[in-house]
Amino acid sequence: MHCIKNESSGSVSKSSSSKATEIIELTINEPNDKDQPKKEEVKDDRVGHDVEGLIFKKNIIKLYSHDDVDQLEKNYEGATRDHANRVKSLVARMRENTPEKRLVTIPDDWKNICDALESDFPNFFEAIRFIRNQLALSSVSNQTLKFPPVLLVGDAGIGKTEFMLTLADVINTRLTVIDMASAQSGSTLSGSDTFWSNTKPGEIFNSLVFDDVANPVILMDEIDKAKNGGDYNPLASLHALLEPRQARQFQDLSVPEIKIDASHILWIATANKIDVMEKPILDRFTIFNIDPPSTIQMREIVKNQYRRFIENDPAGGFFDKEIKGAVVDELCLYHPRKVRKILESSFGLAANSQRHYLIVDDIRECNISDKKEKSRGMGFMSDCT
Predict the structure, then answer these.
(1) Which end of the chain is more exposed for a tag (fewer CB within 10 A), N or C?
(2) pTM of the model
(3) What is the model's pLDDT at position 229?
(4) Does position 34 have pLDDT exceeding 80, yes or no?
(5) Which of 319, 333, 318 is nearest to 364 (CA)?
(6) Confidence band (pLDDT; 50, 70, 90) for 13?
(7) Predicted local confidence at residue 4, as pLDDT
(8) Whole-angstrom Cα distance, residue 230 to residue 214?
């Protein structure tokens, strides 16, 4: 979450007001006061968010209407017991939340974040440059975190999903990951029709209604593997959801009474190939073709993944800060995704031997049950020296 921190030692409380401009009471502790707080009423467009500080009111938006929730409840007053109980439970959950959600803003250190991404994912340079430009655009406007739908296309194992998960983490917004390969119908995204007795909302509804942000990241992994079953096409709802004007009136099939503004969602997708996908869907994405890392890039990826473990894992302090060159050479024989898995196991082997460093035998032993994934046999790269 990004907000403006309250730097004073005083407290902040929001007073009730029906006016467009909120009244905020600021309690200011003056150094020379005799333990008597001085109160001052200040007109401001800010609203209290939490004890850590304030968030601009302009970054709070209303995604749906209370009237629609009331209408939903009325529509099911005479319904069957199962349907009535389902709606009663849903309405209760919705009223426990608020339709007003915050728009996450770009991190203050967004330039450093992009620099770090380029270092950790050197073969994603073009995609990172695109993200950097979008963050720069936000930095000179209202600071809101936003970018057009992005689709990364490339071979399995080169780090597409890892890159997207890392990006979602560093930009500090909510993340929903959807495995499109296992999606059987459009209900995954936009809910199932009320005709079905077990109807339930989809991921879009759940994210926007029950979380606290208006611009979450929705990551659709392996979108090219979504099973197209005609009327049950998992990607059908994307025709509207990826178009901002239409997305402002999104209706989940399970709860059609509620119109939700889904136009602020940050859409990210991955695919191994796109020739099987519909052109109208592809036209809605900015597409980046990701090549396997070069020899030099692969060496940097290995070192960065090693460094990330040392810096982030509780056991990291036990090991040497730098990885040995021979171990880098061995790890370069695998895909980036495989490198991460092998490293995790190799650190365990080294710890069991009370070694503060990894050796080549650690790498080979951790891969002994799955040597077919070695990149030599897949034409990934034959030499990393």
Answers:
(1) C
(2) 0.74
(3) 60
(4) no
(5) 333
(6) very low
(7) 35
(8) 31
Q: Which is nearest to 173 in space by CA: 289, 282, 268? A: 268
Token pair of 43, please? 């007109």
Reported in sequence order, the residue ranges of the chain that DSSP labels E, i.e. its strands, are 4-5, 12-14, 22-28, 38-44, 46-50, 53-56, 60-62, 100-102, 150-153, 175-179, 217-221, 250-251, 259-260, 266-271, 286-289
Q: Provide the token pair at 226.
A: 């979504």
Between residues 27 and 59, the one the model is more confident about = 59
CA-nearest of 106, 130, 108, 107 to 118 is: 130
Cβ-Cβ contacts under 8 Å for 28 (sequence gap 6 or more): 8, 10, 37, 38, 39, 40
Q: Which helix (H) or strand (E) holds 41?
A: strand 38-44
Q: Using an 8 Å Cβ cutoff, are 183 and 234 in contact?
A: yes
* Residue 178, strand partner residues: 220
Contact 159, 170 (CB under 8 A): no
pLDDT band at 197 (very low <50, low <70, confident <90, very high): low
Quickly list DSSP for 79-134.
Answer: S-HHHHHHHHHHHHHHHHS-SEEE-PBPPTTHHHHHHHHHHH-GGGHHHHHHHHHH
Confidence bin at 59 (pLDDT 50/70/90):
confident
